[in-house]
Amino acid sequence: MKTLPKRRTFNPWLTGAVSLAAGVIIFVAGPWRSGGNGGVPRPPQAQLPPVAATGSAPGFMLETIDGTMSSLEQHKGKVIILDFWATWCPPCKREIPDFIALQSLYGGRGLQILGVALDEPDKVKEFSQRQGINYPVLLGTDRVANLYGGVTGIPTTFIIDQQGMIVRRYEGYRPRDVFENDVKTLLAL
User: Fold this and answer.
1) Are strands 79-85 and 156-160 parallel, antiparallel or unpaired?
2) What is the largest CA-CA distance in the chain?
3) If DSSP states are collapsed to H, E and C, what string results for the chain?
């Protein structure tokens, strides 16, 4: 008589534990694999390429963190880096030291950085002072964000030439050399 192999029985507890473990692994690995921020910056090759923009930069008047009013028109004739950001945004905060350095290096040669904060005024003022931001920080509005094509993610940064034309739009974090190359090209340095 031939013996049949021992039949395996279904164990719902074991199956559930394996499924749960697989779900945790997928959940934990998901943001890393997909490049979602999850507090971890994307590798450079996964970043979006710069998006070319055309047309005249829309004018605006916004309040600064000091309570004065500032307009884009005040800076006409300069190369402008217009950065939409917030204090709760890790990639935004990573770019700010680079913007401070660029303003120090090229401000006397025709560069003006303008930070448009899409955040609570008190938090923006405290953060700006703590970081030693050396360029105007403006309190952004939905109207101004919509003028610039509907800023849907931050940081979003526009490069504006001396004639007031948008020449580049960047969505997401970019390292200093990307902005510095644009500035040097436009200032013919």
Assistant:
1) antiparallel
2) 98
3) CCCCCCCCCCCHHHHHHHHHHHHHHHHHHHHHHHCCCCCCCCCHHHCCCCECCCCECCCCEEEECCCCEEECHHHCCCEEEEEEECCCCHHHHHHHHHHHHHHHHHHHHCEEEEEEECCCHHHHHHHHHHHCCCCCEEECCHHHHHHCCCCCCCCEEEEECCCCEEEEEEECCCCHHHHHHHHHHHHCC
pLDDT in tens, 40-82: 333 333 333 344 456 899 999 999 999 999 999 999 999 999 9
For CA atoms 169, 121, 71, 186, the dihedral sign is negative
Of 67, 44, 71, 40, nearest in space to 57 by CA: 71
| Cross-strand pairs, 143 | none
pLDDT beyond 70 at 16 = no
pTM for the model stands at: 0.72
Q: Which domains does the chain have, with CATH numbers?
A: 48-187 (3.40.30.10)
